[in-house]
């Protein structure tokens, strides 16, 4: 089925954020865009069946999140490590951060080492700026769980950044499986 | 005082600026007595900033044709969504990229227009001029009226240097900057610690309005946005969320004029 003008007007502005979340979760451009295409298809075919109570954004993020988790689980079973070269080359050194003793290297490589449930909540709240209630809906957990996962994610990332700044942890070896 | 005890959830919400103002004030007061917690929260806030900046370029990329629903309106591309033909996706994609003028390479090259381009110009201007000890500005703050007048004339709309005293920033002056998109205005401010902040603006041919986005260009952090055909950027060295609140202050003042 082809999308209507109305659907396009509502969905298109959300697509860049969906791509960003998908790529941050999967760390692979083609896989991520593939997933977003799946989300768009499902959104269009399921358009009239969706619960109007939930915001379109949290609905689409819910579809995407579930697809991303499926994909990550399948990759984990096959032992595929993501391709890091697809990450944007950000030079992450701001004076504000140096003041706090954080020597910035690759924050994206660091969050990749967070457990999936912690990485997703951090991305949804800190980057996609979903409300805590929206994040709870997307992750299908109570809001209290969102808060505790968020706290764990942030603390873990903080420790990794400190260790990273001290050069205590070697960069992860990459396993690229064709 | 009968304040509820501060919880970890309060602290997390404070990092995200999502507490009601009254509760935020209580948390701020509590943090003054708990410097270690304050330091931890500052690190979390920094995480928010760098994560947004590191991932912002993805959302700025032009949509690949396969994800651009407008292209799926035409009958020619509708079959792209048919699951049985999904294997034809790559071929279709290449066809589409020819048809739409988006070469595959253009997805990855940095955009030369829009607020992403503005961000790069602003960061370069900041890097060149803010560090110039001899002559960072062309016209100093005591020539502010002349400066505002000059910018207004060259940018073809009324421009006034924003008053950023509330953010602890004093105007040093400004200069006109040449860009591929015509003249741009650069005001430089200084905070109490002697750090410079650049407020940069120019008319936008595309992306005449855009929401506020965090940027990181060659190690300089900043924010960009566009309102009514005018693009703005605030770049510089400011601890914590200082730059964001400065950007909001600039934006509110320009919206009033």
Structural domain tally of chain B? 3
What's the total count of β strands of chain A? 0
User: What percent of the residues of chain A sit in helical stretches (DSSP H or I)?
Assistant: 55-70%
Spans of chain A of 5+ residues with little confidence (pLDDT < 50)?
A: 82-105
Q: Class of the largest domain in chain B, according to the CATH hierarchy?
A: Alpha Beta
The CATH superfamily of the largest domain in chain B appears as MucB/RseB, C-terminal domain
- Chain pair with largest interface: A-B, 54 and 52 residues
Cα distance spanning the termini of chain B: 43 Å
How would a crystallographer describe the biggest sheet of chain B?
7 strands, antiparallel
Q: Let me know the average pLDDT of chain A.
A: 81
The span between the termini of chain A is 34 Å
Q: Work out the number of β strands of chain B.
A: 7
CATH architecture descriptor text of the largest domain in chain B: 2-Layer Sandwich
Helix/strand order of chain A, N-terminal first: HHHHHHHHH
């Amino acid at each position: 089925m082809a999308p209507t003008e109305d659907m396009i007007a509502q969905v298109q502005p959300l697509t860049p954020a969906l791509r960003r979340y998908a790529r941050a979760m999967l760390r692979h451009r083609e896989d991520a865009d593939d997933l977003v295409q799946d989300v768009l298809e499902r959104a269009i075919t399921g358009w009239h069946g969706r619960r109007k109570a939930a915001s379109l954004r949290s609905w689409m993020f819910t579809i995407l999140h579930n697809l991303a988790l499926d994909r990550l689980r399948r990759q984990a079973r096959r032992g595929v490590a993501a391709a890091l070269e697809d990450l944007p080359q950000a030079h992450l050194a701001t004076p504000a951060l140096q003041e706090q003793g954080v020597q910035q290297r690759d924050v994206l490589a660091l969050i990749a080492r967070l457990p999936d449930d912690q990485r997703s909540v951090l991305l949804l709240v800190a980057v996609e700026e979903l409300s805590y209630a929206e994040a709870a809906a997307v992750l299908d957990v109570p809001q209290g769980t969102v808060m505790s996962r968020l706290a764990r994610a942030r603390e873990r990332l903080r420790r990794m950044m400190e260790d990273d700044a001290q050069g205590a942890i070697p960069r992860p070896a990459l396993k690229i499986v064709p | 005082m009968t304040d509820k005890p501060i919880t970890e959830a309060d602290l997390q919400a404070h990092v995200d600026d999502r507490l009601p103002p009254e509760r935020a004030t209580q948390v701020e007061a509590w943090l003054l007595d708990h410097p270690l917690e304050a330091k931890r929260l500052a690190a979390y806030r920094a995480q928010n900033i760098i994560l947004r900046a590191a991932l912002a370029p993805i959302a700025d990329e032009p949509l690949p044709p396969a994800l651009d629903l407008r292209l799926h309106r035409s009958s020619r591309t509708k079959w792209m969504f048919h699951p049985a033909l999904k294997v034809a996706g790559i071929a279709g994609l290449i066809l589409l990229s020819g048809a739409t003028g988006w070469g595959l390479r253009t997805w990855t090259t940095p955009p030369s227009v829009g607020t992403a381009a503005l961000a790069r110009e602003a960061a370069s201007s900041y890097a060149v001029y803010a560090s110039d000890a001899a002559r960072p500005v062309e016209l100093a703050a005591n020539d502010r009226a002349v400066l505002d007048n000059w910018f207004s004339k060259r940018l073809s709309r009324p421009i006034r240097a924003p008053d950023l005293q509330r953010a602890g920033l004093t105007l040093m002056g400004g200069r006109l900057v040449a860009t591929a998109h015509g003249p741009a205005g650069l005001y430089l401010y200084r905070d109490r610690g002697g750090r410079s902040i650049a407020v940069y603006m120019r008319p936008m041919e595309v992306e005449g309005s855009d929401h506020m986005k965090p940027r990181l260009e060659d190690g300089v952090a900043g924010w960009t946005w566009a309102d009514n055909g005018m693009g703005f950027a605030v770049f510089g060295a400011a601890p914590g969320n200082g730059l964001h609140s400065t950007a909001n202050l600039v934006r509110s003042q320009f919206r009033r004029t």
